[in-house]
Structures are given as structure tokens and as C-alpha cells.
Amino acid sequence: MCHYIAGMTDSPFAPDYKSEPYWWLASPRPRLAAVQIPAACDVAIVGSGYTGLAAALELARGGRQVVVFDAEDAGWGCSSRNGGQVSSSIKPSFDKLKATHGADTALRIRREGLNALDWVDDFIRRERIDCDFGRVGRYHAAHHAAAFASLVREVETQPKGVEVDCHVVSPSEQRGELGSDLYHGGVVYRAHASLHPGKFHQGLLDRVLQAGATVIPGCAVTSIVRQADGFQLQCSGGQTQTREVIIATNGYTTGLAPALRRRIIPIGSYIIATELLEESLTRRLIPNNRVISDSRHVIFYFRLSEDRRRVLFGGRVAASETDPKLSARALHRQMIRVFPELATAKISRSWGGFVAYTFDALPHLGRYSDGLHYCMGYCGSGVSLAPYFGTRLAQQIMGKPEGRTALDGLNFATRPFYTGKPWFLPAVIAGYRLRDRLKL
Length: 440
Known about the structure:
Elements: E1 13-18, E2 40-46, H1 50-61, E3 66-69, E4 85-86, H2 94-101, H3 103-127, E5 138-141, H4 145-156, E6 166-169, E7 186-189, E8 193-194, H5 197-210, E9 214-216, E10 221-227, E11 230-235, E12 238-247, H6 258-261, E13 265-274, H7 279-285, E14 291-294, E15 300-304, E16 311-315, H8 324-338, E17 347-357, E18 364-369, E19 372-376, H9 382-397, H10 425-438
Parallel strand pairs: 1-17, 2-3, 2-12, 3-9, 5-14, 12-19
Antiparallel strand pairs: 4-8, 5-7, 6-7, 10-11, 11-12, 13-16, 13-17, 14-15, 15-16, 18-19
Helix pairs in contact: 1-5, 1-9, 2-3, 3-9
């Protein structure tokens, strides 16, 4: 329990501090029984996060023999490290998409974000996954007055056909949504949701195993070799023959798939969780249990834990990747800027994970050669987009018409000389931070 003592200046870390995700308290990484790698399968999936498991579930229920490989424990990556915020987020605006793809395609792409949010809601209910899912709404806070004016314009000029249910919160009304005076009003997106990422992943995994798919953690795929009748996968624990391969590694894509690695920008995002707090305090800080984001270019996002007893506060606080214990101190300082009442609240958990951005800020799925498929690039909105598009990709492989999406056939672009290591990221982030300070 946090006790507030004026002038307390000791370490920000609680006695039980660990550099691992808070979500692993209630949902530790699963220890699966050891199994032999099958000699052959219909579909091999590389990556056991939301994307890979959703694809595996659809394929296994469709009668395919499926094997899922992961170099780490199942769901060790961002599927158990994200903030649990579930949005309808397709990053580019309608106007930007229209300029590139035309109005009709722009509308269909924007609708995919809405479809994904509704799909994940329906999926969790249909599968009866206990993951603390709730349509709590998201409060998007303006970090200066001009940003608030811009948010109001966006709400007032939503394109027809992709309107979202939202309302503006003026600066004078903000305390009804957020117990902070740092921001200048904002917008509530009523349909957005939250869930427990670890429990959601565990629920997906349980259903994949029940459907008859094989999941092999701690077994890195080291090479994919095309053969006349499919592919041979060489793994750290053996090999298998398969007709189809899905690369579902997102922000953890490696040189195993160099053509995809060149198209993904891995960006570290870091989160802290406080120690247990008085519920009377957390209700003052986030009265309606919303998930919170802000309008900065280098955003902060935060929420309450599922029991409303902790604040979880995330963002990027370093120009390059860093140790979660170092990022924890910087996040703690930023959290206190937002909520001065948490000045003496200790950090119980601190962790990071890699999200995958793309050069056009859109997710991408499809086939880049016969039998070799991919699905990745959710740009920080993977809780809904990853399982949704993973399912759609599996449906495409099985020839089902419902697998079609507005993203099919889009160019998955890269840049000259980019090989997957974002050397330019520190300069880009520094530029965005400068724009945030200058209120641009």
C-alpha cells in the first residue's frame, strides 16, 4: 500500500519490484508440455502472439494441421507486454488515405479499424475468454490549447461512413474524466475498450490447443527453404515440412525474413505499474476507468489496472532502446507531472516491448511469394488489429471470401538502404519531441 509522506525522496522502486510485465502476475507465461516437432504439417506459423494464434485457431478449426513456433515462451513479446488498450485505430487520417488511395479505398481502410474493434469484442464474448474486457471508452487528452482546437475540428468534420461515437470534453469539464490539470481538454471515444493482455493471450492459446494445433515455444525457426512441394523449416529443435508458412513476428521480425524485416520499424515502448494504491485515489485520478492517451507526437498512454488499484503508465522516454529499470525512472517523472498526487507512489513493475511501425503507418497482410504469407505492422494498435487480421489472413489461405480486407494488394513499402535496424529513430524522436515542446 502506498503511504504519502511529504518530502520522501528515496528510491522510486517498491521492495517487490521486478523488470517484467505487470500482466504476468495474473497470467504468467505458459509452460507447455514438450512435444516433438511433427515431420510435416499443412501450415507452419512463426510467432505465437495474437496474430499467429488467431491464424492458427481459424486454420485448425478449418481442418488444417498447424504448428506454431516461437523462439521464446508463447506470447512472450508484445502480446503480453502491451497496455491493454483496445481502439479502432487506423493511424492515417481519411484525408491522407484519400490522397494516396482514393476516397473509396480510404473509407474501406478506415472501416477496418472499426471492424477490428467490433470483431475482438464479439470474439471474446463468443469464445468466453475471461480477460477483463470492457468498453470503458478512451479519453484522448490535448497537451496544449491548439491541439484541443484541432481535436474539436476532427470531431466536427468526421467523414460520413466512418464516424466514431465520441464527444468533446472542454478544459473546464476535464476533471470529470481526468484528475489532472496538465492537459487542455480532450475527446472521449466511447466505444474503445480495455482488457488484460496476458489473460487474452492465454485464452487464445487455450482455444488453439483445444482446436488441435501444436504450439512449440523455445524453438526458433532458423531457416525457411523452398522446395518443390512447399517448404522445409529448420528449427533449433529439428525440422518440418510444410505447404504454407505464415510470418507473424511483428516487432520481433528477424533476418529469417529479410524482405519483411526491411519493411518493419521496431519501436520500443515502455510501461510502469505502481504499487497498490487506495481505490479512493485511483477513482479521483481516472474517475470513469477510461484508457487515456494524449495528443503528443511522442505519446503517453495510461490506465488503471483491472482491479483499479494501480496506475499503469506508458510511453517512449528514451531516444534509443534502454533498460526497463532506466526507463522506469523517466516514466515515473512523467507520471508525476500528470498526477502530482502520485509523487510518492512506488514502481512495482517496469517493462518494455517492441511495436512494429510501417513506412505508410498501415498494417499489412498478404502473400509475398507462393505459400509464404505475412501479417504485421499494427503501429501500436495491435490488440484489436493483430487477431483480426490474423484471422482474415487464415481465411484467405483457406479461400474463404470473408477473408478479404481493404488492405489486400497494398504496396508494402520500404526505403533504400534500410535493413531493419532503425538507425534514424533517435533523430526522428528528437524532432517529434521538439515539435511537442514548440506546440506544433
